[in-house]
Automatic annotation (TrEMBL):
Pfam families: Pepdidase_M14_N, Peptidase_M14. Its cofactor is Zn(2+). SMART domains: Zn_pept. Residues 385-449 are annotated as: Disordered. It comes from the Bacteria. GO terms for molecular function: metallocarboxypeptidase activity; zinc ion binding. The active site is at residue 359. Keywords: Carboxypeptidase, Hydrolase, Protease. Residues 423-432 have a biased composition (Polar residues). This is Zinc carboxypeptidase family protein. Belongs to the peptidase M14 family.
Length: 449
């Protein structure tokens, strides 16, 4: 049925430069209906009127070929109350994200029921949408703009142990920001990043709850901050988020495939920070987590690497999460070799530090994301606190300093080398029901059941 409606003049290809711009403004012939994507995160590449109440919207990616994460976000107003038909046509991709709606652009609800039919290929979807004079946002996920993330991080910086700084600028000059959460002046580090891929909103939501747990006043978080610093880059790709990109930054580069050559300012900025906390002392950087979204909740970890620090951390961490949520299915893909230019692969291989890609499902219930991300953060803190304390030259000098107060003949000998810190073996259940999946690659369907 769609072939008839989408004449060849309406169907562009992603190479059509007109379609690369994500924002468009549309007004119906009689002026009744207006549809726009001219807002941060908006994406509607073209809109045309088919008849009085039917509109064809083209959704196209910023570059081609591209990962099939077809992001759409537009806002409709209608002078009169009516139900309109929107024919969504995807160029270079297919329907992936179930619609979410909002009346204010801030509070959202799922609206799968808007979809009245879809073609087998998923390239064409029909929505029937009740509209009126009050604006109605329709998007693939909740809009989580850089402004909203900034509001959240600004709230956090009111806490005395949270600071924020700019670590670089994006291609288009937007700030790439990093939070530091610590109450130690000689901390070990965990490094967290999110939103390399703009539509992966559930990953960003997971990151927010994870970080909230690290900044909370819980007993474990207070102990954690006395020894560790969490460094957090909530939005690695602010340009892509702003323009409603499906995948890439403003140069059309998939940032999570840029971790070999570091051709982009965003990945360069994060690498510099990671190298800094790695350089500042042996085994200071204890964990790297990169938050993403895919079809189901899953942890991606690099192929087993005996030299990685801290040894055995991921297995213990995932077991702890599974023990904590017995009815939640912790899925792990430990055979994730497909792409060698990801953040996780680089941190694992080059820094020798445990690196995890933490994926939340596109449609995972948001309360579940909050519960599991908070629990995962608490289990991470508990396990890292079980690591033996670092005996770095810096820390040693603190001990020496206090001794030296009483003696001018301070012992100048260097300490014998200490063995690499290892997590103590865990008394708790080592074989919980973690689901191992294989052959899943980032951004592709995780066929796991
Ligand atoms: Zn991703």
């Amino acid at each position: 049925m769609y072939a008839a409606l989408f004449g060849s003049t309406l169907i562009g290809t992603a190479a059509d430069t007109d379609l690369r711009r994500g924002d468009a403004d549309f007004r119906s012939r009689n002026g009744d209906v207006s549809i726009t994507s001219a807002f941060p995160g908006g994406r509607m590449n073209r809109c045309t009127q088919i008849n009085d109440d039917t509109f064809a919207i083209t959704i196209a990616p910023e570059s081609d070929p591209i990962n099939d994460s077809a992001w759409y976000a537009f806002r409709i107003e209608s002078q009169r109350k009516q139900t309109i038909r929107v024919l969504l046509h995807y160029v270079g991709g297919s329907h992936r994200y179930e619609p979410k709606i909002s009346r204010d652009g801030e509070t959202w609800q799922s609206a799968t029921e808007l979809i009245s039919s879809a073609s087998n290929s998923g390239q064409d979807v029909e929505m029937r949408i009740p509209v009126d004079a009050e604006p109605l946002w329709i998007a693939g996920q909740e809009l989580l703009s850089t402004d909203e993330i900034s509001q959240w991080s600004n709230q956090l910086t009111r806490l005395p142990y949270v600071a924020k700084k700019r670590i670089g600028r994006s291609v288009q000059g937007r700030d790439v920001e990093q939070l530091t959460i610590t109450q130690s002046d000689d901390p070990d580090y965990v490094y967290l990043i999110a939103r390399q891929h703009p539509p992966e909103v559930t990953g960003a939501i997971g990151m927010v709850h994870f970080v909230d747990a690290l900044a909370s006043d819980s007993e474990i978080a207070q102990r954690f901050r006395k020894r560790f610093a969490a460094l957090v880059v909530p939005t690695v790709n602010p340009d892509g988020v702003h323009h409603g990109h499906w995948r890439c930054n403003a140069n059309g580069v998939d940032l999570n495939r840029d971790w070999s050559h570091f051709t982009q300012p965003e990945t360069q900025a994060v690498r510099e920070q990671l190298l800094h906390c790695r350089r500042s002392g042996e085994d200071r950087l204890c964990l790297f987590v990169d938050f993403h979204s895919t079809y189901d909740d899953v942890f991606y970890i690099p192929a087993p690497n005996d030299r990685v620090f801290p040894a055995g951390f991921t297995r213990q961490w995932f077991a702890a999460i599974q023990n904590r949520f017995p009815r939640y299915d912790v899925a792990v893909d430990d055979n994730h070799n497909a792409h060698r230019s990801t953040s996780k692969a680089w941190v694992d291989r080059t820094l020798g530090v445990t690196a995890v890609t933490y994926e939340f499902g596109d449609e995972t219930d948001r309360d579940t994301i909050q519960r599991v991300a908070t629990g995962a953060a608490e289990e991470m803190m508990r396990l890292l606190l079980e690591l033996p304390e670092r005996k770095s030259p810096e820390r040693k000098s603190h001990e020496q300093r206090s001794r030296e107060k009483g003696s001018l003949l301070a012992n100048q000998q260097t300490a014998p080398p200490t063995p690499r810190r290892q997590l103590p073996s865990q008394p708790r259940n080592q074989n919980p029901e973690i689901r191992l999946v294989s052959g899943v690659s980032d951004g592709e369907p995780a066929v796991v059941r």
